[in-house]
Description:
By secondary structure, the chain is an all-beta fold. Helices cover 0% and strands 47% of the residues. It is built from no helices and seven strands. It has strands at 2-7, 15-20, 25-36, 39-41, 62-64, 69-74, 80-90. The strands form two sheets. Strands 1, 3, 4, 5 and 7 form a five-stranded antiparallel sheet that branches. It has a two-stranded antiparallel ribbon with strand order 2-6. A hairpin with a 2-residue loop joins strand 3 and strand 4. The protein is globular, with a radius of gyration of 15 Å. It starts with a strand and ends in a 10-residue tail after the last strand. The relative contact order is 0.39.
Amino acid sequence: MTVRSLDLVDHAGPITIRISEEKAEVTLLDEVFVESGGARIHPRGCDVTPSPAYCAAGGRPHVLRQGDALDLVFDAGGHVVLFARGYYVPTPTAATREVR
């Protein structure tokens, strides 16, 4: 699993972030959160049981296929850094498929 971060502009919360899969690949998203003011903040909806797969690292990934999107709302403001843990697997495209 890889953890990627993205420094976002200062923002007056809440903030909505869209994660989308636009390439010919499958993304397996294990965890998404932001850090703001030294605190780790998970998206709204992570306080239910069972929580969505992207709420906590645990090997039960949320799957995004090409064309899928996930809109997440975070109750965070000020300097916000987005973190995402997971990996992707390329899928064959029309240009790379073997012709039979």
